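@channel anyone free to eyeball this complex?
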Amino acid sequence: MRAWALLACGLLLAACGVDGHVGARFRAERDLFRANQMYRDASIRPSLVKDADWRELAARYQGLTDRYSASLGATSPTTAEQELQTISAGALFAAARIFGSLQDSTQVLEIFGRLEREFGHMAAVAGEVALARAGIAEGRHDAESAIRYYQTVVDRVEPDPQDAGVAGAVLDLPLRIARLRANGHPEDAKDVYLQARRYYEDKVASHPGTLIQIDARTRLAEIAADLGDWRASTRSLRQVEADLRVQDPPPRDPAVIRYYIAGSMSRGDAPKDSLEQALESVLADYPQSDAAIQARGSLADLALVSGQIDEAIAHLDRLRADHPTNEEVGSQALLRKARALEGVDARWGEALEAYRAVAVEHPITEAALRAPLEIAAHYGRVGDETAVTAALDRAEKDYRGFVQRYPPGPRSFFARERLVQVLMLREQYDQAVQEMLQLGEDLSKTPQGPQLFVAAAQVAFTQLADTSRAITILDRAGGLYANADVGKWATGEAARLKGLRKP
Amino acid sequence: MSPILPLGVALRAWQSSASLLFRSAIWLPFLLMAGIQALALGLLLGFHHDLLLPVGAPLVEMLAGREAMHYPVLYLALPMMFAKVNLGINVLVASLASGVATVLFARAFGSANVGSAWRAAFRSWPVLIVLAALSIALVLGVSYLTSLVPEETRSGSRGVRWGVRALSLLLFVLVQSMLAYTTAWVVLRGQSIWPALRDSVRVAFRTFLPTFIVVGIPALLLYPFSYAVGRVEWIASKFRPEMVSALIGVQLFFELVATFVVVGAITRLFLWRMGAAR
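replying in thread with the prediction:
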């Protein structure tokens, strides 16, 4: 009996200590998990999901926030309450992401406003919103607003290079701000970089032996390079490399830093020999790193710039030999070899062979899809119209064959973009417009979508002199992106063209 | 002795037990146990509801830590949490329920010298609790023995993995077979802990193969459920986390039916052995 009484007392005491928000947090996590699962399912083939379904999912996320944020109080929240706030804010971000992919900037900005109003007291949320707003402002070339938002992030969020969210991006921002300011006032470059330099120097001093110190020192090197002081930049980077080499495992690849040193030297107009030595040292000291691939490529570029074609080709051949199973590296090296040979009049035969080899040896790569157009471009440059026609014929056949052979995906879309280029070069504008429209529909949820519609309307208007078709295309773009700037512009342009058509 | 004979005896015992499947009075103790298990499972699953939170949250935290109060961690920890709670239920409630059921089965099989089932079981409850705790301690000991096989050895070979599982199941069935008659000795013959243990082992040895078959076959049939419950992370990621609770629910239902049949069959074997001894 006594044991039961003790158990009851124990449970009663435990019950008194229960945080009332634990239950709501669990339910919010459950609802968010389910919504995320729906988002993941829809993201497998986003083009097959209707806009209405995406909006329904966004509403689901917003509903989650409505349901759980109502019970939150602002004063001294418990751990569960803080987590509930994070979940609610995260759900709103997810909704904003969906509206962003639907190009609905009105809804995105509305959600950002709500986030600032309801969750602005949370530094991470305020930082995320400011970062997103800065990105939008940069997209609109509004540097002043972008700087203001970036500064908000820097002021409110402590940097954490290992964080996947806003804290992971903070360390980049003072430099970004300085570059934006320097773009506007190149004459005051030294002054505008001063604030950033102070920020990074403070981080270097206050975070000894941490990743923050390493990353801050890397940014100091970038500042020095931006100001043309490549000696100071190289000094900073050498210090970073030394710091990284004593750590096991190093938090950043020291090979990349060594490669940056070469980059910094090249920006500082260092002598070619020193530059070569720096790049060779990456190959010698870090042969297994991806930076070694870039270093070998840069050595080839350096040789090309100095007119040493054979040396450049030797580097590119070595690149292919060292990475026989890496399709991207092999195809790019072969394409660059073809371009290098094309520059020498007497070696066009070898260049043509290399261009054709790209498609044969690495058929499903971007390089292979670029090669046919580059062959045609060469004949265009030398004024051989017959060869241009034959090369474009062959390129069109190749692209159509590729699109038929492979399922829709990034490579197939890339091939279709090249096909549009070929059709334009062949002055088959009607087919080009058709292809652009089909591609625009397939890529409607990507930034290329609106660009393709606008380009199709321009071709219809300027090359085909078909105002009605241009209006139809612009109306379609206006409907698809009604809440985005491009959609509003398309609707206005369609109205303008309709006005022009009236007698 | 021909292996057909023990199998025939085991089949007859099951048959006798199964013939009583529709006697509602015998189901009562089993339903009591199932009801308490369902309540415990419901409390763990619904701890986040405002009404249950004061009791559910401390319980979940006590069984699996603070992390288990998050979704979907709760479902990943559920089999472990429920197994812990079930240990308590087995010691406190299942011991009483099996005592009541043994008396009810004995009466249904025509054993004259048994009085009120509930009164007899309540009278012997403390002894039954000790015996149930002992049985659980032995089963946990068996699990501990199999856990001594190094993880690298197990993960390196499929054969070793399944060998360890088979050995674990075999030892479990052996322990259960040896202790199968303790409840009957206590509630039907009024014995105390030590004599009940001694005589249960004696009867189990004399009726070894039929007892081993009666206990072992249901354990083997139920094994896929415990195997699946052990793979909660895969189930939760492949389907939905809630599938874990559904799986435990189904497992409880089949365990309920199996327990009914096994308790009935063991009582039948016990009475048969006692009759033969006379």
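from a first look: The interface with chain B takes residues 11, 14-15, 17-20, 22-27, 29-30, 33 of chain A (CB under 8 Å).
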